Amino acid sequence: MTDDLLLKIARVSKSFGPVRALTEVNFDLRKGEIHALAGENGAGKSTLMNIIDGILQPDSGEILIDGVPQKITSPTRAQQLGIGFVHQEIALCPDVSVAENIFMSATNVSRTFTMDYRGLHDKAAEVLGRLCAISPATMVRDLSISNQQLIEIAKALTLDCRVLILDEPTAALTEKEAQILFGIMRDLADRGISIIYISHRMVEIFDNCDRVTVLRDGQHITTQNVADIGPGDVVNAMVGRVIDDLYPDKLSEVDRSDEVILDVRQLTDGNRFHDVSFQLERGEILGIGGLIGSGRSEIVKGVCRLECDVSGETFLNGQPLAPKDYQECIDCGVVYLSEDRKGDGIFLDMAISANVSALNLSQVSSRTGILSGTAEDDQAGSLGRKLNLKYGRLSDPISSLPGGNQQKVAIAKMLSVDPKLIILDEPTRGVDVGAKVEIHRILRELASSGVGIVVISSELPELIGLCDRVMVVREGRISGDVRGATMTEENIMQLASVTDAPAA
Would 136 disulfide with which of 41, 48, 124, 421, CB 3.0-4.6 Å? Predict the structure, then answer.
């Protein structure tokens, strides 16, 4: 890495009506460096990156590339200048192949009238060979979220980039896939390509980046060499206050109860999971760990009757739970929050209040079935205060909120039906550190109040820090559980990945 500046952002400001998104922000990127950009949701990171990529135009300030002022009027112009952007939100065409998605930009500007599919597939296979074993002929709609994210990254690698922007690229990746990506990033940096890396995960920043810049409330707070500071310094700069405890206190042995909220016995779907048995005790938060694809989500969806026919027995507070479908599950007091928040958890174009009431409209309707806007607002306002939800108006679309507050609305929707059990799949994915702390506090308070809480997470520090016990899934079966002193990353990974696992 040299000290030569490739990209410089000087005193850039941007407003959306009365809202000031950026205020005279400075940022620079050296040739061949990996530069982390950190900040809470709403800090201005996306706005700044959208300006660099030509999606937005600044109100004032300038952008210099190689010391030359540039006006980046569109993403096409950004690509011409050597800027590639992998967005956090996946934007692929589901009804065409992987190869066609990877080379969509090249196809759009091609002057030929026929498609060389064999050549396209050969080139796609070459790019994919560095990332994953996905066939170029596969239809994108048939891929998992994590594989779709890898296709987005592969698209960017085909561009002749000098600057590569990666926005939360590992949010949907397995640990193995993430490590492959980090290796590619280091290889690109060694070849002189500069990377702007946006992440809420401190371990990724400190393991892979050279410098880190922190934004807060649309302003530049600090830029430091990663070697000169610690994760706590970055977190405190992000939130503007000292955060001593990322996780609330766990359930003490004195308060532990023998009362069982959920009792699952030999749950089987005959394909993705087999003979799954576990219990959730009152007051505890049960974590479910395991590699992506191990069957974690499928098991809880089986409990909720969301995707498959299952056999086995399930008891809720000692009573048989045998719903025919998810609606009956909700009626029994069991709710599930999907890992795909924007795909399955919320309705982006609907009002905040409408999202909160979506699981049970009868609670906010008259006896004749007419929906009451006032009742909706009262319900959303009450739950919003409980969750410390920040919003403008309850009639605003939920898409107007940053990720952390969108997740709080999704949780409020769960709470609107007065649940006995909440299952949350990746509850803090794509959520900044401040919102994570609040969501963890909310979950602990719910567990303490008697609501059953089950959390699936790919982040081992979250499982260990938040949960009282972690059950590990491997190849569709429970491979063991850990608690107390045995709840370590090493033990969880061993249970998740090998046959000879440690005793819990």
Answer: 124
- What pLDDT score does 390 carry? 85
- pTM score: 0.67
Question: How high is the pLDDT of residue 452?
Answer: 96
Q: Are 487 and 493 in contact (CB under 8 A)?
A: no
How many whole angstroms separate alpha carbon 368 and alpha carbon 71?
A: 58
Question: Nearest Cα to 441, choosing from 254, 250, 205, 212?
Answer: 250
CA dist 301 and 6 (Å) reads 48
* Beta carbons within 10 angstroms of residue 336's beta carbon: 24
The whole-angstrom separation of Cα 348 and Cα 2 is: 43
Alpha helices (runs of H) in 113-208, residue ranges in sequence order: 117-128, 145-158, 175-190, 202-208
pLDDT of res. 504: 45
Taking the CA of residue 89 as centre, how many other CA atoms within 13 Å lie in the half-sphere pointing to its CB? 7
pLDDT of 88 strictly over 60: yes
How far apart, in whole angstroms, are the C-alpha atoms of residue 28 and residue 8?
A: 4
| Averaged pLDDT for residues 75-97 | 87
Token pair belonging to 422: 């909440």
Three-state helix/strand/coil letters over 84-117: EEECCCCCCCCCCEHHHHHCHHHHHHCCCCCCCH
How is residue 129 annotated by DSSP?
T
Q: Assess contact for 98 and 137: CB atoms under 8 A.
A: yes
pLDDT in tens, 290-326: 877 789 999 999 999 987 689 999 999 999 998 999 9
Identify the residue whose tokens are 């009506």. Answer: 17
Q: Give residue 2's pLDDT.
A: 44
- Angstrom distances, CA of residue 481 to CA of 146, 176, 491, 493, 501: 26, 22, 9, 11, 10
- Across the beta sheet with 452-456, the strand order is 334-337, 421-425, 452-456, 285-289, 469-474, 477-483
Band of residue 502 on the pLDDT scale cut at 50, 70, 90: very low
Length of the chain: 504
Instruction: Locate 51 and state its tokens.
Output: 């300006």
Q: What is the dihedral of CA 196, 197, 200, 203, to 10 degrees?
A: -130
Q: Which domains does the chain have, with CATH numbers?
A: 5-239 (3.40.50.300), 245-333+419-504 (3.40.50.300), 349-416 (no CATH)
Say how far apart CA 254 and CA 300 lie, in whole Å.
29
Report the chain's C-alpha Rg in angstroms. 24
**Rounded to 5 degrees, what are φ and ψ at 68?**
-105, 125
Helix (H) or strand (E) holding 165, with range, is strand 163-167
